[in-house]
Design brief:
The structure is a single chain. This protein is an alpha+beta fold and about 260 residues long. The protein has a domain of about 80 residues. It contains eight helices and eleven strands. It has a five-stranded mixed beta sheet. A four-stranded antiparallel beta sheet has the order 3-10-4-11, covered by helices on one side. The C terminus is likely disordered.
Length: about 260
């Protein structure tokens, strides 16, 4: 039975960099044109960050806008959802995995790569569009490309997943990224996961919680909704359920067995 508890969005935050790139600008970089892109995506221009700008800088601007719109302080946040990177230095947060988010190769559903056996040589015949390498996820992508023996130096790069999505739908470019970044398109069937000739490294994701206070009832309800959603997309092959951590450095305080 579907979980009857519900969560709702109470505020949004946003930030876009000032640099605008039109389809005509884009046509100078890749083999496409304005009419082709507009007819398939409806997009005529997009915003690009300057080279070397980390995603964290954009996220900080968006989070600041979010907190302002919601009228709360950062200290009032119950939990953060996302990839469970190990902290660079010890912090006051615990981390609980809920799902796995492997790095995958994605292409449009009608891509010619799906008409042949996927090998490294077959993958080399198609140009890549990749998230910017200065991001942590970019470093993980570089690692997978190295395991596959695929060159990344000549690939088109962008810090905008919206732009990458646009190019995947409109061209024969392929991308390497966490598959849940395109979960909607994967569930709709407009994008597909290209089978990898090697296993992809595991990437646990879940919730990050403060150690100095218990999770609120609303937070627990939200995590239960999240678990139900993860189970649903896992059944459809888009994500995997993560194993629970057992060491003392991780938390399992949101698990139903530990809710009193």
């Amino acid at each position: 039975m579907r979980n009857k508890r519900r969560a709702k969005i109470t505020a949004l935050g946003r930030y876009v960099p000032p640099k605008v790139v039109t389809n005509y600008d884009l046509a100078k970089r890749v083999e496409t044109n304005h009419d082709w892109v507009v007819s398939r995506t409806g997009i005529s221009e997009r915003h690009w960050v300057e080279p070397g700008t980390p995603t964290s800088e954009l996220a900080a601007q968006a989070v600041g806008d979010l907190l302002k719109n919601r009228g709360i302080e950062a200290s009032e946040i119950d939990l953060i959802i996302g990839r469970l990177y190990a902290p660079a230095v010890p912090d006051q947060f615990s981390r609980e995995p809920l799902w796995t988010e492997p790095i995958s190769i994605l292409a449009r559903a009608e891509h010619p790569i799906f008409s042949e056996t996927v090998t490294v040589d077959a993958l080399r015949r198609y140009d890549l569009i990749l998230p910017t390498g200065t991001q942590l996820v970019g470093q993980e992508i570089e690692h997978l490309l190295a395991l596959l023996g695929l060159p990344a130096a000549t690939s088109l790069r962008s810090s905008s997943y919206g732009f990458i999505r646009e190019m995947l739908h409109a061209t024969d470019l392929i991308s390497v990224m966490p598959r849940l970044m395109m979960v909607g398109d994967l569930l709709r069937g407009t994008l597909k996961v290209v089978p990898l000739p090697i296993p992809a490294p595991d990437r646990p994701a879940g919730v990050i919680l403060p150690r100095d206070r218990p999770l609120s009832n609303a937070g627990r309800s939200f995590v239960q909704c999240l678990r139900a959603f993860v189970a649903e997309i896992a059944e459809r092959g888009v994500a995997g359920i993560a194993s629970r951590y057992s060491d003392a450095e991780r938390s399992n305080t949101t698990h139903p067995d530990n809710q009193g």
